UniProtKB/TrEMBL annotation:
Belongs to the class-III pyridoxal-phosphate-dependent aminotransferase family. HemL subfamily. GO terms for biological process: protoporphyrinogen IX biosynthetic process. It comes from Microbacterium telephonicum. InterPro entries: 4pyrrol_synth_GluAld_NH2Trfase, Aminotrans_3, Aminotrans_3_PPA_site, PyrdxlP-dep_Trfase, PyrdxlP-dep_Trfase_major, PyrdxlP-dep_Trfase_small. One of its GO terms (cellular component) is cytoplasm. This is Glutamate-1-semialdehyde 2,1-aminomutase.
Length: 435
């Protein structure tokens, strides 16, 4: 038995499924999850001492690569000053300023610890601001695991083909309307059916939890107009895309495409904590000021704005300069091209979809024409991905253990790292082609 097998057996005795977050369990690709003991740059090392090129990047946060020395130094320095005070600290406003400066429309922010809390708070704020109850979300979008957001959600629910979650009261689920992504008519129909009753539409700025599915040209503008006309708020979830799809998040990608969409509220996570638990909800000052203690919408957290976590986020954002995004864009382009040509050479039908520097690969003839929504994403060939995943893992490249996730590069994925991945591709593509 390998150390990974031993650790997995032991973990399963005390932790449900042996993992603290479902997709880590390799449930859809099969096999024993790798128990990681360290990570540096573009690499992770497991309990058996095997080193892998990492394309998970902690599911997004590791923008600069793992354990960037200056980020680690900032964390150690903050830890020496104290782990948690339960009082305001100077660095919280600094991090809020760094985020606000990068995203138009974000006038005020509140820091929380997880993306789940950020979206949960955004929804409560939208309901408080509008006095309405209904929420619209898109099928295949994932916004964390709060009750109202688990209907037709992406990420682990997509991976395990779950329509929703047990334990969510019907009365709560009934407040969420689920609409197909990129479908203008369905969205209009939802507003027409419930005029003046929708508090908010929440959307991933670009969907990346059912594989990467960017909004169709003009769709986000259409969505924003519809919300404004009805008096509903638009919540843009940039937990995954924020400061990763581009320096200014997916909002910047949209702006560069000529779409000036300023959401009422925006949620952030992942990169803004640089690998530590920091997330945020931000947006219009008048809406944000509805939060306690200035307003009637309650939200709180013992560890919110934790000084050690904030130090990691601040260091990460300050280090994320133009050179980092240039590197990220180059790595993303080179890798997606190499994957595409290896799959084409092996005769594997596929499509690669992009949202800024984010991309993912859908396998299968049924999706090769493009994936605009969740119903199409569900027609991908998950078995081909499984074979590809294991061939890559065997060759020392760790991909997301699910066909429904983005592939994450970091600024540490340089030419040499990319060459290592590229060398593994032809055999993995042949494995994908061979049922
Ligand atoms: N929103 C989006 C778009 C996400 O990708 C995620 C996490 N993958 C979340 C919210 C939830 O964040 P967390 O896991 O930190 O609760």
């Amino acid at each position: 038995m390998s150390a990974n097998d031993d650790l997995f057996a032991r973990a399963q005795r005390v932790i449900p499924g042996g993992v603290d977050s479902p997709v880590r369990a390799y449930g859809s690709v099969g096999g024993t999850p790798r128990f990681l003991v360290s990570a540096e740059g573009a690499y992770v090392t497991d309990a058996d001492g095997r080193r892998y090129v990492d394309l998970v990047a902690s599911w997004g946060p590791a923008l600069l690569g793992h354990a960037h020395p200056e980020v680690v130094e900032a964390v150690v320095a903050a830890a020496r000053r104290g782990l948690s005070f339960g009082a305001p600290t100077p660095a919280e406003a600094e991090l809020a300023e760094e985020i606000a400066a990068r995203v138009p429309g974000v006038e005020k922010l509140r820091l929380v610890s997880t993306g789940t809390e950020a979206t949960m708070t955004a929804i409560r704020l939208a309901r408080g601001a509008t006095g309405r109850d209904l929420l619209v979300k898109f099928a295949g979008h994932y916004h964390g695991h709060s009750d109202g957001l688990l209907a037709a959600a992406g990420s682990g629910l997509a991976t395990f083909a779950l329509p929703g979650s047990a334990g969510v009261p019907d009365a709560v689920a009934a407040q969420t309307l689920v609409v197909p992504y990129n479908d203008r008519e369905a969205l209009e129909a939802a507003f027409a059916a419930h005029p003046g009753r929708i508090a908010a539409v929440i959307t991933e700025a670009a969907a990346a939890n059912m594989g990467v599915v960017p909004p169709a040209s003009g769709f986000t503008t259409f969505l924003a107009d519809l919300c404004r006309r009805d008096g509903a708020l638009l919540i843009s979830d940039e937990v995954l895309t924020g400061f990763r799809a581009a320096a200014g998040g997916y909002a910047q990608v949209l702006r560069e495409a000529g779409e000036q969409v300023v959401p009422d509220l925006v949620t952030f996570g992942k990169v803004i904590g640089g690998g530590m638990p920091v997330a945020a909800v931000g947006g219009r000052a008048d809406v944000m000021d509805l939060l306690a203690p200035t307003g009637p919408v309650y939200q709180a957290g013992t560890l919110s704005g934790n000084p050690v976590a904030v130090a990691a986020g601040l260091a990460t954002l300050r280090l994320a300069d133009d050179a980092v995004y240039t590197r990220l864009a180059a790595a993303s382009a080179a890798l997606s091209e190499a994957v595409g040509s290896a799959l084409t050479d092996a005769g594997v039908p596929h499509v690669i979809q992009r949202a800024g520097t984010l991309f993912s690969v859908f396998f299968g003839a049924d999706v090769a024409g493009g994936v605009p929504d969740y119903a199409t994403a569900q027609r991908q060939d998950a078995a081909a991905y499984r074979r590809f995943f294991h061939a890559m893992l065997g060759a020392g490249v760790s991909l997301p253990p699910s066909a429904y996730e983005a592939w994450f590069v970091t600024a540490a994925h340089d030419e040499a790292v990319l060459a290592e991945i590229t060398a593994a591709l032809p055999a993995a593509a042949r494995a994908a082609a061979t049922p």
